Amino acid sequence: MTFDEFPFNEAIKDGLRAMNFEQPTPVQEHTIPVILAHKDVISCAQTGTGKTAAFLLPLLHNLLTDNHAENKINAIIMAPTRELAQQIDQQMEGFSYFVPISSVAVYGGNDSKAWDVQKNGLTKGADVVIATPGRLLSHINLHKIDFSGVKYLILDEADRMLDMGFFDDIMRIVKHLPADRQTVMFSATMPPKIRELAKTILISPEEIKIAISRPPDSIMQAAYICYESQKLPIIKELFSTKEPNKVIIFAGKKQKVRELALILKRNGLKAEAMHSDLEQHERDHVMHEFRNGHINILVATDIVARGIDIDDITLIINYEVPRDVEDYVHRIGRTARAEAEGMAITLVSQEEQFRFKHIEDFLEKTIYKIPVSPEIGETPAYDPKPPRGKSTNPRFKNRSRNNNNKGAYPRLKNKQHNNNNKQHSRQKHAD
Fold first, then answer.
1. Rounded to 5 degrees, what angle do the CA atoms 194, 95, 54 make?
2. What distance in Å separates the CA atoms of residue 228 and residue 52, rounded to the nearest whole number?
């Protein structure tokens, strides 16, 4: 199937051709017709499957072909983070290049000038509002905003919004909207709280499920089995003989991100931290420096795993084993993009072995374990067992791309082992 087969307005097709969009991804193929039919939708699809285009393209078509109020807000798109809101806004700008549709992005962390731009867009009636819940509520509390023309409400990464405590904010915003509207919800997982939200704000929704994708074979996955105290020496050794290039190190907590970035900088490496405590201008500066190669290592929380596209990441390091499979897939999916190759390394302490085994079970493969250098010391055996006092069914849930591996970046030594793994790995559909 190609995008030309959708009954899109010609101006939208012109935009797709200009952006070299030819074939839809599975989530786009299944979701676009339902949205075009003005039905409520709940679509279960993870980040990186092309879901932004899955809702923007039919939204633009419907706005062009339906009767809608002039000088009023016609659609609201809500996202959990400013980074994701920025990404949606950028794609909106691309898809609507030939289309007379106005939009405004409403998110925090910026200056008073940006606040005024947001206020004008909301009060004067931009066609599409792309917002984080908290910032939108701030404007609602301070300004008189007319939502009577809203015909479309889209919630992106709804599960993440609920994880971040936005349920009440979402419901407060929904109360300002007309009941007669189309509501579309995207979520990577379908836990009870998401079903509760869907039951509350959607009407007879059509449910679309896209299977959780395995990482592509172009990502070489490996791990170090080590003690917690050996993680930092392993990272230092990795970069002792070769300067890193476009590397992301993921850690679970902001404090750990700050500590790692500081230690790496003290060791002469061009590293910076990326986390939610940074002001927006600081985050924009760090990402600009990283994209331009002035920073070689980005130490980050999972905020970078979702919503930021950088195509030439060579190496991903999980300093800690992610707590669920979905986050693992999101993290390592930052490399080997655009048909390139990449590498992902996970540092696995004794306490994390059981979680790592669940990742291997989900991938249906054994991830190669790189021997730790004797200079670093003896390491624990890989013997994944549930933590003491825990059941064998822990609360670890399966929720739901150019790299030269020379010098200090370890190779997967057994080529046959690598090929065998590939036979068991499933191809992830490209975004």
1. 30
2. 38
